[in-house]
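Lecture 7, part B: from sequences to assemblies.

Below are the input chains for today's worked example.
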Amino acid sequence: MAESGEAIIRLENIVKRFGGAQALSGASLAVARGSIHGLVGQNGAGKSTLIKLIAGLHRADGGAVEIDGKSYDRLTPHLAEELGIHFIHQDRLLVPTFTVGEALFLGREPRIPGTPFLDRAAMRRRSAEILERYFGVSLPHSALIAELSAAEKQIVQITRALIADPKVLVFDEPTAALVRREADLLFQLIRRLSAEGVTILYISHYLGEIVDLCDTVTVLRNGRDVATLPVAETSAAKIGALMVNRDIGELYPKSDVTPGEVILQVDDLVLAGRYEAVSFSLRRGEVLGLTGLVGSGAKEVVRTLFGLDRPTGGTVSVKGETVFSADPAAATERRLALVPEDRRSDGVALDLSVTENTTLASLGRFSHGLINRGAERRQTEDLVQRLQIKTDGVDALVKTLSGGNQQKVAIAKWLSRQSEIYLLDEPTVGVDIAAKVEIYRLIGELAERGAGVLVLSSDIEELLGVTDRLLVLFRGRVTRQFISSETSPDQVLADVTGAYETLLHAG
Amino acid sequence: MATVALSSFSRGVARYALVAALATVFALFAALAPGFLSGANLLSVLVNNFALLAIVAIAMTFAVSVGGIDLSVGTAIDFASFAFVSLVLAGQPVALAALGGLAGGALVGLFNAVLIAGIGISPFLATLGTLFVGRSVQQLLTNGGNPVYLPPAGVPEAFRFLGHGTLAGIPVPLAVTALVVAGAWLVLSRSRFGRVALATGIQASVVRYSGLRLPRITAATYILVSTIAAVVGLILTSTVTVYIPSSGNAFLLNAIGATFIGTTYDRHGRPNVPGTVLGVLLLGIVANGLLLSGLNFYWQQVGTGLLIFSVLAIGFANRKAAARA
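Predicted structure of the full complex, as structure tokens:
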């Protein structure tokens, strides 16, 4: 199928900067008409920027965009749709309070000819026809989007695209929210659409899927395409190796700490439908890594430890005492700290000052009836100094700080609380490289002071750089444990993406 | 350099728009309204236009601080008033009856707390429901809305103290207001509870992720709001020696207005006690001044509305300018 000729989408030497950050530095991509083309790369490699460019959501700072042989220097979302390019995104959300029928035709409702009135009969007929033909299902036309399962929502998204007779369908991480059987149905559908002549661009973290499904794969790394290969001539392991950047310098100032007593012990922890039988221990002075794809359960394990989710089985003990309650307040009292992934929503309050954020979790220490504002201020100034938080004073609102400095405030909050177990969820997402290094150093410092640190990250090099041990979760289970210093990124990547499983199946 | 000077200048204006409005209005009426500046009139402004509304507005300020609103402050006033009068009529000592009145008001807050913190209904809808339910309950309790009078002969002197007494020459309502204002200021801007309440209003999710018990904070706030409002029920009843069903709602809109006018006084636009007090003063002076100028009641409402618009507009426009700079 891949041989059917010229490129329907051609991107040449695309450059895209966001402020100081270089998201794409000369990336090229050519998708042959009628093929199923895979696009892979680690977080931050530039996949989503590239896709948004095709969707007309970003404009390139340099390079050429050609669609169907015609060059465009200003794509808009509307123009992209007119050219027949449609997007299926796991969280490009449909309006939850719309009905299936309304969502399917939003923005291009058929009218009764010659009148301004919606042709509801035609809408119902057309959607039922497509749903039956491609999915063999009928969704109630008047059901609310909010009532549908993840798979059904995706069906609605795909149907919405199919109604417009697309030439190219772009799938962005489509299986992240699906169970295995649903994913298999999706693959069947994609193959069928391909056979009917629709070009598919398929973005996924699951290298196994890419190998199963695609004709060609392009690997992005650091904003550049490092290889485009026919899938028949490669393997998941080779693709994984290409994704990993090997020439990274001394980014990780890791200090040697001899681990002390066990501070956090997790036994057979279960959250039904999310993860199963997760067991591990964390010692004082140790940095433990946790990684896995979206839906692997890694994120949910961290949430459970902080009391945000209630486990359905197993035990968690802190310093030898079993913890029962699922409640962040109780977790905090046990000296647990969570630096959440969504920093701007959960980690820091943007409209509170640096001081107010820093002491929010530890106000008890500063108040005897009334808050001792002098002591509060001194503590904050200490931490601002120690973490080298760049701010226009401790009274500045946190929204005036850069991402990396906001993250340091989120960590300072727990230092002020004198926490001993730190759960860091994607601690360096959205911060620049200099701030990253400072956060890595801070992680090392926490361990030196006798804290236990658990880092959840999807950046594998980072994890290997800062942790002592590393656990990999895949589809709800801990599948591997690595000693970080003896492990290479592609070994981990194989487990994270399930390439290892694929190989087993193949062999 | 010029932009720096300008931005700090606009921040200053944003903050002092309220004080400037107050001064302007005061000067205007001093010049135009006969008798406005007399000591008797100014005292009457404080006792009749300021004291009670200030307490209700302070209560409202706490509700707005946690990011909510309380439309049922009037219900708390009424319940306090009803309980106070009923207990006195039943022959209970006045002090005990007053405590019963506060409890009656707090009950309304407890009901709100269950709806908002327990069930998760939005504060606007929950307290609107309480307002309606409270009105019906009062009608049921009073045979369809008949006032409950204390017989003039049987009113204990102590009962009238809250409304008519003086403390060191200061009318008791004013003294109580001063006490409530001072206490509320300490709690909201100096205590742990106040800090967490403001943080909840600004970004509740961070409060939860900081290991603080969000439902507990919200519940405590709504109970506090109703209890403060209940104080007004006691003073009001003591002043007029009668309980009139659903009369407390008269304060509602002005209390909301004063609270939001008051937010322009804070550097970051947060609800704050001094701002609320200035807002109440502004509304009180305008009402009194327009009355003395001989304008009728309907024009007073127009004047009040225009005033709220202009203070908010100046305050927000300047803060926006400051944020841009």
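Note for the exam: The CA atoms of residues 88 and 157 of chain A lie 6 Å apart. Keep this in mind when comparing with the next example.
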